[in-house]
Design a protein that fits this description.
Aspartate Aminotransferase, domain 1, Aspartate Aminotransferase, domain 2
């Protein structure tokens, strides 16, 4: 049975060119770049080349790139490092209710330390109101942290406009661009974003490497101590192989940017149109105008998303449920809850996210098997059963509300 992988927002396979680039750094080029002898100098240049490759993808200066072990580490550094460095100016930051847990949990940690946080709501498409953002700013606000694109729905936020608002109020601005990197145009010379977080394994590099862009002049305290690596911003021996791999992945993303975006958009739209045509009672979650080219979040009425995932897996098709990375109550997606998705749909959502390796034939395979799976599950659904056992049915509220 052929395997089909449509969960690229969770992680991506390592690209062949990337694998070829980083393997030597586990064997022949094994040195520590901080060493002054031949083994260290042999890899020092590769480290700096990778820094340039990452910088080129977002049109930044190489010295503004700090390597980390993950996007989550980058978000922690950006938020806590900013708040520590600017605490003499205030103790208030602004974010949204639909951020990745790497941001939300870090904000809650900041609150536990005595800080205050404003969590901006979103509308039914997952978009924020810029007027509400500006209204939330106080004389104690020291940081705005808003993701570039949402990992569950693909909704893209108006980052350039947000950056202008932050700049106008002299407030530091951080964005988690983990899902946006390589899928939307990012140009640090045309925006005033101060801190931007990236992750290697979302663009064809291995897990365990990331980077944060720190604009020259940005005030930021280090949070990992014990060495002077990365200009003193992030102590610890460099993951040279991972960094080289991320550099190569960024180089490939820059080189093939336009055809990649066109291909991903084609795959997304083909699947969406096919499902909407062949399967009834399906809702697209997210902003249809401003969204990632590779992300499709759908709600299938009257069935459980987990059951749908399991049946797709029997055909070798990997996707993810809308609640896979949820931090909301009872395992519900905090993103979909914030969008006020009907509660009878919260458990029925699936996310399909596409990558470079995916093909039209794979999309067509999903369209071949999905309608019958949905039909079968709906036939067994208690939400469509006329005689509801109100004492034992876990969906009774949903059924009553819907009917």
């Amino acid at each position: 049975m052929d395997k089909i992988y449509f969960d690229n927002n969770a992680t991506t396979p390592v690209a062949a060119e990337v694998l070829d680039a980083f393997l030597p750094y586990y064997q022949t080029l094994f040195g520590n770049p901080s060493s002054v002898h031949w083994a260290g100098s042999a890899v020092k240049g590769a480290l700096e080349q990778a820094r340039e490759q990452v910088a080129n993808l977002i049109n930044a200066h190489p010295d503004e790139i700090v390597f980390t072990a993950s996007g989550s580490e980058g978000d922690n550094l950006a938020i806590l490092g900013s708040c520590d460095a600017l605490r003499h100016q205030g103790n208030h930051l602004i974010t949204t209710v639909v951020e990745h847990p790497a941001v939300l949990d870090t904000c809650r940690h900041f609150e536990e330390r005595g800080g205050t946080v404003t969590y901006l709501p979103v509308d039914s498409s997952g978009m924020i109101d810029l007027h509400q953002l500006e209204q939330a700013i106080t004389d104690k606000t020291i940081l705005i942290s808003i993701m570039w694109a949402n990992n569950e729905t693909g909704t893209i936020f108006p980052i350039l406009e947000i950056a202008k608002i932050a700049k106008r109020h002299n407030i530091q601005f951080h964005t988690d661009a983990v899902q946006a990197l390589g899928k939307v145009e990012i140009d640090m010379q045309s925006t005033s974003v101060d801190l931007l977080v990236m992750s290697g394994h979302k663009i064809g590099a291995p897990k365990g490497v990331g980077a944060i862009y720190v604009r020259r002049g940005t005030t930021l305290n280090s949070h990992i101590h014990g060495g002077q690596q990365e200009g003193g911003m992030r102590a610890g021996t460099h993951n040279v192989a991972g960094i080289v791999a991320m550099g190569k992945a960024c180089e490939l993303a820059q080189k093939d940017f336009i055809p990649r975006v066109e291909k991903l958009t084609q795959l997304r739209d083909r699947l969406q149109e096919g499902i909407m045509h062949q399967v009834g009672d399906v809702t697209v979650n997210g902003n249809l105008k401003h969204r990632l080219p590779n992300t499709l979040n759908l709600g299938f009425s009257f069935i459980e998303g987990e059951g749908l995932l399991l049946h797709l897996d029997m055909y070798g098709i990997a996707a993810s449920s809308g609640s896979a990375c949820a931090s909301g109550t009872d395992g519900h997606s905090h993103v979909l809850m914030a969008m006020d998705v009907d509660k009878w749909l919260l458990n029925s959502c699936l996310r399909f996210s596409f990558g470079d390796q995916n093909t039209i034939a794979e999309v067509d395979k999903v369209l071949e098997v999905l309608p019958s799976i949905v039909s079968k599950l709906r036939e067994m659904s208690p939400m469509l059963t006329p005689d509801i056992d109100t004492d034992n049915c876990p969906y009774v509220e949903c059924c009553i509300d819907h009917h």
